Amino acid sequence: MRLIHRLKHWQIFIFLFLIPLLFEIFAVVVGLLRTVSSVDTQEMFSTFKYFPIIILVPVITIYSWLWSIGIGLRSLIPESAKLSSVRFKLAFVYSLLYFVVILIAATILLFNLEANESSAVSPSALVNIDVSGLIPVIVPLHVLAVFCLFHCFYFCAKTFKSVVMQRTVIFSDFAAEFFLLWFSIIGVWVIQPKINKLS
Length: 199
Hints:
By secondary structure, the chain is mostly helical. It has one domain. About 80% of the residues lie in helices and about 0% in strands.
């Protein structure tokens, strides 16, 4: 956690946004070039099948950053303002596992689609598989994962502000930090330099 506390805002930004953005641009350009030069859809899958794996980079980065704030800064809060981290840890683990599982499942699906391009099984048949029976299960799990992620933002913002103000805080005290964590593309440039000074 100390390592993440010492990272500069631009270093976190690279892993959080720049790497996936550059890969996405690369994948789109290569995909378009291959589509123009070949009608073989397998060429398209060979580029885009790695996209969910690349998305793991910002997912792991944002969760590492949140953990370094929510847990790593707790020791700097005065005893009178200590926060219980039980719900944060549960929300953190559930939402992280959910998003990682979704990305792995997407990767497996894309690899299978590419493999079946040259086999007897039609990829369109795989895509057209009826998944409506899974919707009542997937939707609540997804909503819960998003709620847990927002709770992580809430807890980390409250923890950070408790350290800065050295007292018990209410939402109006850390509302700005909550939204900065939510919109991390901006928040990392504001919050991380302050974390550097605290650590």
